[in-house]
Amino acid sequence: MSTELLLVFPVLGVVVGIAAGLLGVGGGGIMVPALSAIFAAMGFSLAEIVHLALGTSMATIITTSISSARTHHQKGSVNWVTWRAMTPGVLIGTFLATFLVALLPAQLLATFFACFMGFVAVQMWRPLKATSQSNPAKAELFAAGAGIGGVSALVSIGGGSLTVPYLNWRKHPMTNAVGTSAALGLPIALTGTLGYLINGWQHTDLSQGVLGYIYLPAVLVLSIFSAIAAPFGVRLAHSLPVPTLRKVFAVLLVVISLRMFWQVVGG
After folding, report:
1. Chain-centre distance of CA 265, in angstroms?
2. Cβ contact 55:109 at 8 Å
3. How far apart are CA 219 and CA 221, in angstroms?
4. What angle, 0 to 180 degrees and rounded to 10, lies between the N-to-C axes of helices 160-169 and 106-125?
5. pLDDT, tens digit, for every residue of 176-215?
6. What is the pLDDT of residues 78-104, one digit of tens each?
7. CB distance 98 to 196 below 8 Å
8. 133 secondary structure, DSSP code
C-alpha cells in the first residue's frame, strides 16, 4: 500500500469523528463512499469494493456506538423499555439483511445506497416533524426494529437516521429518541459485523488484511482516529452554526454518494 493511501485512513477517521460529534450523524454516509474509492485505488475488484466498504464501515461503527450509548446512558436519555422491545427485531433484521447484501451485485447496492443517502440528505435539510397520538405496541416495535436493522445493514449505518424520526413520531421526546437510537446502534453494529464476516468469509485473505467483508487495517485506524476526533466535533457544535452546516453536509452526502454510484455503475 502506498504512503498516500496509508495517510488517507487517519484523515478519514478524523472527518468521521468530527462529523459525528458536530452534526450527530453516523459515519456510514461518509465512510462507505470514501472506502469504496480507496479500495478501488488499492486494486480490489469493482465487484467487491462496495461489499468490503459496507462491512468495514459497519465494524468501525462498533467503537463509536459503544461510546455514544454510554454517554447517553449516563445522561439518562435512553428509554431501555423501548430498546428491549426493538432489539430482537433489530438483531434479526440486521443479520438477515447481510445475507441479502452478499447476494446483491455491487451496482444495485451502490444504487440503493445513493437513493437512501438522498433521503437522509432531505431529512438533514428539512427535518420532518410528524406526530402520532398512539403508543406503539411491542409487535410494532419489533417490526420497526427489524426494518431499521435491515436497512441499516444494507447501507452500513447505525440506524439513527431511521430510529430517531420513528421514535419522535411515536411521541418520544427528542432527547430520548436520540439516546435510544444511539443505544440501538450497538446491536446493529455487532450483528451487522458478524453477518458481513460470515457472508464474506470466502473472500478472506489475511495477507491483504481482509477478513470476510472487513478490511482490518482500516477498522483499526478509523476507530482510533474517529474516537479521538469526536470530542472536538462536540466542542465545535457549541460555536458553529450547526443548522447551516447540516445543510452543507446534506449536499456533501448527495455528491459523494453519487460519485460512488458513478464509479461502480458508470465505471
Report:
1. 22
2. no
3. 6
4. 50
5. 888 888 889 899 999 999 999 999 999 999 988 999 999 9
6. 899 999 999 999 999 999 999 999 999
7. yes
8. S
Grid cell in block for residue 254: 448527495
pTM (2 decimals)?
0.87
Three cell numbers written together for 10? 487517519
Question: Which amino acid, residue 80?
Answer: W
Task: State the cell numbers at 121.
Answer: 440528505
Q: Which amino acid is at 54?
A: L
Torsion angle, alpha carbons of 122, 128, 65, 117, to 10: -20
C-alpha to C-alpha distance for 54 and 63, rounded to whole angstroms:
16
CA 166 – CA 160 distance, rounded (Å): 10
CB atoms within 10 A of CB 153: 30
Cα–Cα distance, 248 to 253 (Å, whole number): 9
